[in-house]
Amino acid sequence: MKIGVTSQNFRTITGHAGKTRRFLVYESQQTEIRELDRLDLPKEMSMHEFRGDRHPLDALDVLITASCGQGFERRMAAKGVRVVATGETDPLKAVTGIVAGDDLPPPVPHEH
User: Fold this and answer.
1) How far apart are CA 92 and CA 95, in angstroms?
2) What CATH code is carried by the domain that includes residue 15?
3) Number of H helices and number of E strands within the chain?
4) Which residue ranges in the chain fall short of pLDDT 50?
5) Beta partners for 34?
6) How far apart are CA 102 and CA 73, in angstroms?
7) What's the structural domain count of the chain?
């Protein structure tokens, strides 16, 4: 399973998934979790701007974020990617929870 995490600073889970350009990518095989990649995309590759056919996030099974809009969720679902919004800030802890089938803490409310 490939799991992406929105992380503008490559340390914590950040929000505004549609405008995010930096992602941590993990792979899970059974109980082993390893970081595969760190994506640092140009502005035109943020999902908010992207209008092409194939995007690097299309390869994910799950995308974890601190926040996103319904349009982002629908767009990712159409590509077969499940979006999980959470208040958890530690990327590895969140990925471990997803792999274990645990519920992650709900996202922290914020104003747009």
Assistant:
1) 5
2) 3.30.420.130
3) 2, 5
4) none
5) 27
6) 20
7) 1
